[in-house]
Write a structure and sequence with these properties.
The structure holds 2 protein chains of 2 kinds.
Chain A (H helix, E strand, L loop, with lengths): L6 H12 L1 H38 L4 E4 L33 H9 L4 E16 L2 E10 L1 H7 L2 H4 E4 L7 E5 H7 L6 E6 L4 E10 L4 H6 E5 H7 L8 E6 L5 H12 L2 E4 H4 L1 H39 L1 H9 L4 H37 L15 H28 L2 H6 L1
Parallel strand pairs in A: 3-8, 5-7
Antiparallel strand pairs in A: 1-9, 1-10, 2-3, 2-6, 2-9, 4-7, 5-8, 6-7
Chain B lengths: L6 E12 L7 E12 L3 E5 L6 H8 L7 E6 L2 E2 L5 H11 E4 L11 H13 L4 H13 L15 H13 L5 E5 L7 H18 L2 E5 L3 H4 L4 E6 L2 E7 L5
Parallel strand pairs in B: 3-8, 3-9, 6-7, 7-8
Antiparallel strand pairs in B: 1-2, 1-4, 4-5, 9-10
Helix pairs in contact in B: 3-4, 3-5, 4-5, 5-6
Protein name (chain A): ABC transporter permease
Membrane topology (chain A): Multi-pass membrane protein
Main location (chain A): membrane
């Protein structure tokens, strides 16, 4: 006993060491709970990061659009009654007013990483007898390739297009029986027509996109869609994607244009993620509760088993507070040690998972985030849970009547 | 009049009742008056149910009397809170029980250290030295590092006596310290208690059923039905 540990620590560690089986079982229980929490948190964290990344790979964080065209209702002066009923207007292709100015203005904003003008519309690809409806996007490759992970999706050729080039999806290429270097004829409803050379083929991992999307140069799209000098949207990315909604609102306030953030555009996706986070929290809560009940029940039994020892300690000068601390400490130590063991086990699971859950090509099924703070949180959380769980048994022990305890 | 410095323990009209206010209310002790002087070696005898253990618990500050006054080395105790009672108990009173005296999780030596450790908060050299001294005094130096539950009954009681003395108390309370020992071990224990009493000037109250041991005490107090039935010096011994 030539340690520097305080009295209660000496007693607590000795009690726990001597009740090996109990200590081992309850620590394993806590460890298991903590490892489940660590594993699930890392898994869900990884899943969410991955989903965000995939979403943001194919979508700009903020899109600035021209305001919707609305027919004004005529009202009679005075009583506000409708004079005529007007049909809502069909939205024609329309340019963002003064888009160069807006781009310059947005580029100056602090959090903005890249801004790119885009022209989008619809058209047909005609090749021989075949005829495919497509949605065409006119881009400036320099900036647009920073906005969207198009470069990584190219499976043949290059994404750097000039005014006579086109990028098509892998499914479309297959349907039309074409490959890089082949020529396609593109037509639009407004009568524009162009013959373009396939410069690259992309695969977005989504057959809708792969069979419908084509990318052409901005100028080519402008002339095909009869929109010379105009763009249908200005798209931008921020250095912090999750601030997109506030930034979008401030741009909207400054320009009066329609500004949509990826957060608003994916509201459903976000609510799904929120539900996922909530279910993660529910799991954490119940695992924590289970661990707490386990610790509490072991300590309640221990107080009964140790009642004579408590009586003797009290008779030989140990105060109520010291007894209280002795049992709180046992709870805390069980939580702490259990969580360290559990964090270790969780880490082991994750490492195994990383090596097992892989795609055929050797990449991970989905990457797992490995936040070291998670271990700190788990340790602190489990220690607190241990102390809380020990509260009732510790009070019970402190209130024990020494005279009764010794005699009984 | 007795010199107040020489009084270790004084009880004034101590009463103890259980189930107060209930139909089953029973008074165990009916007004005990008692003075134990410094260095006295007292036997407390009486039939089962006479209130010996209750009285011992009250004297040991493990329980509170329903009414009356209890002074330990001149200090009134009935108004004290748990904290102060614990401190006074640690400083002034040593216990030796009949059974389950020691903590099985600790060695003999560590058991002797525990009261000092509880008082000081953490281990230091002095505690070790003092414990080793006492273990030697009770003749157990060779088994000091053994776990306490590996010791014989007699050895365990000797460790308990060493523990009772570690804080140099004014009073040692022993509840049937030889109750579950064979005659020879009982004699050894009793001799040890006697010897400590003579060398340290500590007062002892020993509850016993054994008339042979009672006769070797300085004073015999007999409790019957919660009253002191007789209290006389043991002529043969003194």
């Amino acid at each position: 006993m030539n340690s520097i540990m305080p009295f209660e620590w000496i007693l607590a560690t000795r009690f726990m060491r001597e009740a090996r089986m109990q200590t081992l079982l309850i620590m394993s229980g806590v460890a298991l709970g903590v490892s489940v929490i660590v594993f699930i948190s890392a898994l869900i964290g990884g899943l969410q990061t991955n989903l965000f990344r995939r979403t943001l790979d194919f979508q700009a964080q903020i899109v600035i659009l021209p305001p919707k065209e609305v027919s004004r209702s005529l009202r009679q002066a005075g009583n506000g009654k409708l004079a005529t009923l007007v049909q809502p207007r069909a939205q024609r292709i329309q340019s963002v007013d003064q888009w160069q100015k807006i781009m310059k203005r947005v580029e100056k904003m602090k959090s903005v990483e890249v801004v790119s003008p885009v022209v989008s519309g619809s058209g047909f690809i005609v090749r021989g007898e075949a005829n495919k409806a497509i949605s065409l996007t006119g881009i400036e490759p320099d900036t647009y390739l920073q906005l969207i992970a198009l470069r990584n999706s190219i499976i043949a050729g290059t994404p750097n297009i000039s005014s006579t080039d086109i990028l098509v999806g892998s499914d479309l290429a297959k349907d039309l029986g074409v490959w890089t270097g082949d020529k396609l004829n593109l037509q639009t409803a407004s009568g524009g027509t162009a013959t373009l050379i396939i410069r690259g083929i992309f695969d977005f991992g989504n057959s809708g996109a792969n069979s419908r999307s084509v990318f052409i140069a901005l100028r080519t799209a402008q002339s095909l869609l009869n929109l010379s000098g105009g763009v249908t949207s200005v798209q931008l990315n921020l250095d912090a994607p999750f601030t997109a909604e506030t930034v979008a609102q401030s741009i909207q306030a400054q320009t009066g244009l329609e500004v949509e953030s990826w957060i608003a555009a994916n509201a459903q996706f976000f609510s799904a993620l929120e539900a996922q986070s909530m279910s993660n929290n529910v799991i954490r809560f119940f695992v924590g509760l289970t661990a707490a009940l386990g610790i509490a029940s072991v300590l309640v039994v221990s107080v009964v088993q140790k009642s004579k020892a408590i009586g003797i300690l009290r008779a030989t000068g140990t105060s109520r507070r010291q007894i209280l601390r002795l049992f709180l400490l046992q709870g805390a130590l069980t939580g702490l040690m259990g969580s360290l063991l559990g964090a270790g086990a969780g880490w082991l699971f994750l490492t195994v998972w990383r090596n097992v859950a892989i795609n055929d090509d050797g990449t991970q099924l989905f990457p797992i985030t490995f936040d070291p703070m998670l271990f700190v949180y788990a340790a602190v959380g489990a220690t607190l849970v241990g102390i809380l769980a020990a509260l009732f048994p510790a009070l019970q022990a402190a209130r024990l009547d020494p005279a009764v305890a010794i005699r009984g | 009049m007795v010199d107040s410095n020489a009084i270790t323990l004084q009880l004034k009209d101590i009463r103890k009742a259980y189930n107060i206010g209930l139909p089953a209310e029973t008074e165990i002790l009916h007004g005990i008056d008692l003075i134990i002087k410094r260095g006295e070696f007292v036997a407390l005898i009486g039939p089962s149910g006479s209130g010996k253990s209750t009285l011992l618990n009250l004297i040991g500050l493990l329980d509170k009397p329903t009414s009356g006054e209890l002074f330990i080395t001149g200090q009134a105790t009935t108004q004290l809170q748990d904290r102060e009672l614990t401190m006074l108990r640690a400083k002034s009173i040593g216990f030796v029980f009949q059974f389950h005296n020691l903590l099985p999780e600790f060695t003999a030596l560590e058991n002797v250290m525990l009261p000092m450790l509880a008082a000081r908060g953490r281990p230091d050299e002095a505690i070790g030295v003092r414990a080793a001294e006492l273990i030697e005094q009770v003749g157990l130096t060779s088994v000091g590092k053994h776990m306490s539950n590996n010791l014989s009954g007699g050895q365990q009681q000797r460790v308990a006596i060493a523990r009772a003395l570690v804080m140099q108390p004014a009073l040692v309370l022993a509840d049937e310290p030889t109750g579950n020992l064979d005659t020879q071990s009982a004699d050894t224990i009793f001799d040890l208690l006697r010897r400590v009493n003579q060398t340290s000037n500590t007062s002892f109250i020993i509850v016993t059923h054994d008339p042979r041991l009672a006769k070797r005490c300085d004073r015999i107090i007999e409790l019957v039905d919660g009253r002191i039935d007789s209290d006389k010096p043991n002529v043969a011994e003194s």
